[in-house]
Amino acid sequence: MQMENYGFVRVAAAKPLVRPGDVTYNVSQIKQQIEEAESKNVAIMVFPELSIPGYTCADLYFQSSVIEATEAAIADLLDFSSDKSVAFAVGAPFEHQSKLYNCAFFIKGGSLLGIVPKTYIPNYGEFYERRWFAPGKVSDTIVPFRNHKRKNVDFVRFSPNLIFDLNYAKVGMEICEDLWVPIPPSSDMIKNGANIILNLSASDELAGKHNYLKSLITQQSARGRCGYVYASCGSAESSTDLAFSGNCIIAESGSILSSAPRFSMKAEMAIADIDMELLRNDRLKHNTFNAGLDPSASMWLTVTPKDAYLSTPVVSDPLEYRHIDPTPFVEHDEERLRQSCAEISSIQAWGLAQRLKAINCKNAVIGISGGLDSTLALLVTVKAFDMLGYDRKGILGVTMPGFGTTGRTHGNAWRLMEELGISAREIPINEAVEVHFRDINHNPDVHDATYENSQARERTQILMDLANQTGGIVIGTGDLSELALGWCTYNGDQMSMYGVNASVPKTLVRDLVKGYMIDEPNEKIRATLADIIDTPISPELLPAAKDGSIAQKTEDTVGPYELHDFFLFAMLRHGYGPAKILKMAEKAFKGTYDRATILKWLRTFYRRFFSQQFKRSCMPDGVKVGSVCLSPRGDWRMPSDASAAVWMEEIDHLERETFPEADNL
């Protein structure tokens, strides 16, 4: 990873205005867009298929004037780019051994790095390219290229099997139809190390085709865990039989990062910052990525420019063209959020239903506090019982008021249990805990960890014993965020017989409960769920305020869960370090949290994440619902005594940068 850019590489897909056959004009338009990209610190860019002469030249390709003008145009672009840092691919015909090929010319710093021919030449419907071009399935060869400007001959590689190593990215190229075949050439490029694919295209518009094209691009970037930069010719091409809208699309690992307007009468450009570290970590974690690859049999050739390791692009803001989602666990589109919530709740309920069925159990015990986590766990349990056709009375909900229980949460707990039609009990814990304090000689006026954890363990003991009495299992209520921070009592609320919320982060819990509320036909249940959603997050282990309201608010102590969930996703899903997480969080939470606040809670996150692993090492079973999970049996294996020194040293450095006047850092 290039630390100057935090592992991001800026790319662009450009659509110049061209005139079919007017090579001089077309090159002038391409130069303008190269200048624009250079001014915006773009490192790699791609132009459409046959962009130098224009895609719709048809039989004009056979004119020697077009061929010669194209050669001169390439030479002109070589001279023009000699003082430019951006690497770019342009489309042009190339004559070789009495055949004409539809090619991508890759240029950087005044050098022609290679010529890549189009592999699959269509010859159907409106596309009859074989009239002019030969398929690019040729053996690797060195070909002469006449440089009219320099009055010499350059010798360059001509092959469909080229990968260009720029140090900060390994670039492969395919042309239009190549993407539409069953096994695109880029699939092999990717397996042989390419992490950014450029596609020079000329795809006409048809009803429904655009969505299919986006699907192709996102799927190829997802399968290849790569960046995919696609540029197609636009409105200035001939409309004799076809309409070209100028699709410019940039995707990364299954997501579209940027796209330019279609059907525009002016030149357009899509720009995005591709996260190379994300791609690298995805490939490392998924060991099936290179399955079946035999490097010894590879026909792929890597081309490395002379200055590749001396010309890493550095930009002032590597995230200028990248949206950073502050809540990566949550969908933002309302309809997709509803679909996601329905799917996640079904996965949770199905996992529990399978466990109940496997052990022939028709009873469950669950502690109901009136808070979000226990509410979600209860709703999931009810859904699982309904799936199995079990009587809801087999669910025993237990409210266990203690020293910090408020009237609001206690009332909501009771209403929810009654309205859902489950069995319900109330077992106050104050007296039992006070006896325990006397037994261990603890002063009840000292509100320390012993004071809090004694209540949590008393509640867990009650639930476990009730499960024995009823022949049921205890349903865990703790969520993913609490597990990450260790914000749970060891052998207290950390323990259960099945944890339905174990892979649901705190920022998603509220939306899942809201999803249940929206779909709930019972008005009373909806009202109760609405109030629970609005209740501050608290373990309620410290005495309530004088007015009876919640005094102990979790986020005042441990920090905002939206920050911790952001840190967790970045660390576990993508393997980022503190510096990159801080940089991304500053952009994601701009206007909400300043750098100092983010750093404060980032330190808390890493300290707690490492020190609390022992609680996760023996966590109960619980079904996985998303891409981030902390189960020690699958997704996250870490020694409980692992050192956080490397991460803390990086945070120390970030704090010294942020607070240079502080002598104690």
List keywords for this structure.
elongated; 19 helices; 665 residues; single chain; seven-stranded mixed sheet; six-stranded mixed sheet; alpha/beta
Number of helices: 19
Kindly report the spatial arrangement of strands forming the biggest sheet: 15-14-13-12-11-10-17
How many strand segments? Answer: 22
DSSP helix fraction: 25-40%
Radius of gyration: 31 Å
SS strand fraction? 15-25%
Distance between the termini: 27 Å
Identify low-pLDDT runs: none
Look at the structure and give the mean pLDDT.
Answer: 90
Reported for the largest beta sheet, the result is: 7 strands, mixed
Structural class assignment: alpha/beta
Shape: elongated
